[in-house]
Amino acid sequence: MDFSATKIFRSLFGRDPLMVVRAPGRMNLLGEHTDYNGGWCLPAAIQHSVYLGLVPSAETSVWSIDQGNSWIPGQRKDRPSWAIYFEGAMAFLRERGMTWPAFRLAFGGDLPVGAGLSSSSAITCGLVSLLDHYASWEFSAEQCAALAVEAERRAGVAGGMMDQLCIFHACRDMAMLLDCTTVSYSYLPAVIPGHGWLIADTRVRHHLPDSDYNKRSLACREIFYRALELFPGIPSLSVLDEGQIQELYAILTPPHSEYARYVFEENARVLEMAGALGEGEALKAGTLLLAGHEGLRRQFGVSCPEADFLVNHARRSELALGARIMGAGFGGCTLHLINSRDMDAYSRGITNAFKNRFGWEPHVFEAVPSDGIQRVQ
Q1: With 60 as the cut, is the pLDDT of residue 1 above it?
Q2: Band of residue 210 on the pLDDT scale cut at 50, 70, 90
Q3: Which of 205, 222, 257, 290 could be bridged to 252 by S-S, CB 3.0 to 4.6 A?
């Protein structure tokens, strides 16, 4: 879709939109399920995005360009699945005392939904940003990101803050080394020279409020409460030192002990990955990706056969340095580190192998680190 000319919005509204916001998707180089544990992660925005445009109206309504259906606030019958994010966000903002004039909103784009690329956060962040402009709230990016975090939780996703911070603060060609305990971050190169990131979408879909994602988040909250019994006053699991970690292991039983072990090991991998990116160590980065996938598969239990197949393809291929499942898990996509000269050949090979195994083609594309959220009109 060519959203740059706003022609799709114009055809829907019968006039030019008053404003349009681009909310990018997110890839996470490493650090999965660590954000809601106060840990480290390495996200970057990508070029694939959701675009939201609106015009003033006597009655508020939202239209999905990609699905061809609509929602009106208060509608319960035949409510589209995507409406939960708009409904939750608007309910949360009203609870905070915020108001805005009625509007007609349409959204769509080229960001796959439910693929582990943060489509739900892109929608929520895009709505918060759009309403900030429309209602002249004049919030900072930090304030908008904080609102988006709580708004998405209101929609039923028991997540952390990585996606929203990345969407509002990302910079082209950069990844964010994010500490989710202190909510601080620094930028570092997202791409190792001579290499690129490839995303392979399994097309196996999850719906976060209904998935085991929330169960993992709640289990980690229980682990944190156990840690608080041992170490009162700690702000998160991720601040524990090695001795404290061993004390915690001693009072945990599976699967909680495995979940905790994964979080601590993944935090260490993120810091190693940051060093590999800074030093241009592609082989080390690839090894860390594969180790991260094994942690997600064996310890955290969020992979699926389709994602495992794609990662194993990368493990066997001379053209790939490493890969892992990315996002919440239970479907979605995998992230692959590839030599730039081999992108096309690897894409063809993994597409054919996957189709021969499962009967359908994955959606394979290069992920280009991009800027964060932008008002484009």
Answers
A1: no
A2: low
A3: 257
Burial group, residue 318, by CB count within 10 angstroms (0-12, 13-18, 19+): exposed
User: Which residue is it, tokens 């390495």?
Assistant: 42
Q: Where are the alpha helices (DSSP H) in the chain?
A: 7-13, 83-95, 119-134, 141-154, 162-169, 213-230, 242-249, 256-279, 282-294, 305-316, 343-358
Hey, what amino acid is at 194? G
Q: Which two tokens stand for residue 336?
A: 């692959």
Q: Which residues contact 55 (CB under 8 A, 6 or more apart)?
A: 13, 15, 17, 18, 103, 104
Residue 373: helix, strand or coil by DSSP? coil
From the list 223, 163, 136, the residue with the least C-alpha distance to 42 is: 163
Residue 108 amino acid letter: G
Distance of alpha carbon 102 from alpha carbon 348, whole angstroms: 47
- The CATH class that applies to domain 195-367 reads alpha beta
What 8-state DSSP symbol labels residue 104? E
Is the pLDDT assigned to residue 114 strictly greater than 90? no
For residue 232, say if its preceding peptide bond is cis, omega within 30 degrees of 0: no
- Residue 2's pLDDT band (boundaries 50, 70, 90)? very low
Residue 307 tokens, joined: 């994602």
DSSP readout, 207-232?
-GGGSTHHHHHHHHHHHHHHHHHHST
261-294 residue pLDDT tens: 999 999 999 999 999 999 999 999 999 999 999 9
Q: In the CATH hierarchy, which fold is given to the domain comprising 7-189+371-375?
A: Ribosomal Protein S5; domain 2 (3.30.230)
Q: Where are the domains of the chain?
A: 7-189+371-375, 195-367
